[in-house]
Design brief:
The chain has about 450 residues and is of the alpha/beta class. The protein folds into two domains: about 250 residues, Rossmann fold, CATH 3.40.50; about 190 residues, Rossmann fold (3-Layer(aba) Sandwich), CATH 3.40.50. Helices cover about 35% and strands about 20% of the residues. The protein has an eight-stranded mixed beta sheet, with helices on both faces. A six-stranded parallel beta sheet has the order 16-15-14-17-18-19, sandwiched between helices. Helix 15 links the parallel strand 18 and strand 19. Helix 11 runs parallel beside helix 12. Bound molecules: adenosine-5'-diphosphate (ADP). Adenosine-5'-diphosphate binds next to helix 1, strand 14, strand 15 and helix 13. The site of adenosine-5'-diphosphate has 17 residues, from helix 1, strand 14, strand 15 and helix 13.
Length: about 450
Amino acid sequence: MEKLKVLFASSEVVPFAKTGGLADVAGSLPIALEELGLDVRVIMPKYASVKVAGKEATMGTGVKVYFIEHDDYFNRKELYGDKFGDYQDNLDRFVFFCKEALERCKKENFRPDIIQCNDWQTALIPVYLNTFYKYDPFFAKTKVLFTIHNMAYQGLFDKEQFPKMGLDWSLFTINYFEFYGKVNLMKAGLIYSDAISTVSPTYANEILTKEFGCGLEGVLKTRQDVLSGILNGIDYGVWNPAVDKKIFKKYSVENIEDKYLNKEMLQKESNFKIDRDIPTIGIISRLADQKGLDLLAKIIDDLLNMKVQFILLGTGDNKYHVLFEKMAKRHPKNTSINLKFDAVLAQKIYAGCDIFLMPSRYEPCGLGQMISFKYGTVPVVRQTGGLKDSVEEFDLKTRKGSGFTFETYKPEYFFNAVKKALQVYNHKEAWEALVKKIMKLDFSWKASAADYVKLYDNILKK
Ligand code: ADP
């Protein structure tokens, strides 16, 4: 039987370029699909961070990655913008990418059964397939799955930019691109795709509501029959303390003692007091409103007056940079604030902390909680989106559960959840059992990749 052919289009892919979780997904799901017997090719822009000569590379067990080259558009350090904001020519850049992605299929003679598009940067692919390429026999059988990684980033542009897409003005209506007078790429992508998915079952329900739909809940409701949610997995070839070369010392459930060597080294590097009994609390996050940092800001002084150490790694909105810098000055002894993107430090934090915070306002899936499970670092999360689908409240009596959770988006609820974690931390034996238990949880791609194959099959049956 011929292999199912999938083109996976993403604006960022680990290990070539990353700003967030999408890159992790794009760098691991295709490999898991290939292992299930599919023929998967990945396509992405060739940014300055892509240190590969030529037009393609391979990933994992031989998944081909095609790069779209255009020095003016993509040979830049950042992916979507710099400190002055989004790049002014983002629409030109991703119009070019989407057109070239389809042309590249032809050049490679790769006729995809499914094109899996991810987020607004790829949303013009289904639009072009249904317009410019509508009668092109090469794509006659190609179907599109559009995967939403975050509803909040929709690709909005001024109306004046509409002609850049080369489409007829008749598509600038409320039924296609028009969104409160602007051009909305994600909206058109949702309308033109054969099916829509998002990265957790809970988020798939949430985005149908006003609170989480970011204005597109109405459009999504009209497509509810083809909308589903599949929880992301993570790649245990990378996110695994037993093989991780970036941490101070490798460890696993069998030699959990070595996790505490990592803790001591992290304490040392952070200029903290070296003491295994002091709980270390970490956060690694884009510094954006989505991530619940306003809640953190409200509890942080009370938290840091307790016997804890706090380490933050993140970059993003300037207001949070200012806020955390000030906080570090108020609590110099037990905080370490690292306002940058640093993949090595990230892994050291996952390994060296006891507790990991994700108080997100919303979270399509979230990878941090899954990574911290594997590293034996107990997550404290808000029950939303993928956090709700992956973290279960721990109960000291029954020993059920995998972390600490809260639902109401208020600082006191968050603080209570952190305090619950700290209480259990003081029950040494219960804590260690919890740490060992979460390290054994399986959030690999195995189950989720199989769910994608089922979804592709369903799309092709229609
Ligand atoms: P999002 O995609 O919304 O940013 P996710 O939890 O899905 O959130 O994925 C975030 C990923 O990016 C995780 O792998 C996390 O470890 C990583 N990450 C976030 N900020 C940083 C940073 N400043 N340095 C290194 N890694 C980071």
